[in-house]
Amino acid sequence: MSVYEALLLDPWRELIVDAPMGTEFYGACRRVTPDINERHRKIQLKYTQAVLGTEEVSKVFMLAVDGLHQDLPATKVLRRRLEVLIDRFVRD
Question: Is 70 exceeded by the pLDDT of residue 19?
Fold first, then answer.
């Protein structure tokens, strides 16, 4: 959870949810800065893989995380969704 606190929840709260015109900013950044997005994905994969082990499992987890914020939820809702995903994903 601490990895995704830093990679997803903190930026989400500061740049998307609480920022003026944050949702517009989110959409524009994804379109205008694909190189930055790609660097972020590589960092995300590195840290996710450090926790989950394999690249394949980490990529599946990351794709699931992508789905959690497609409807631009409040940070509290996104945090809860992430907690549910982590609980289900890492359960033995």
Answer: no
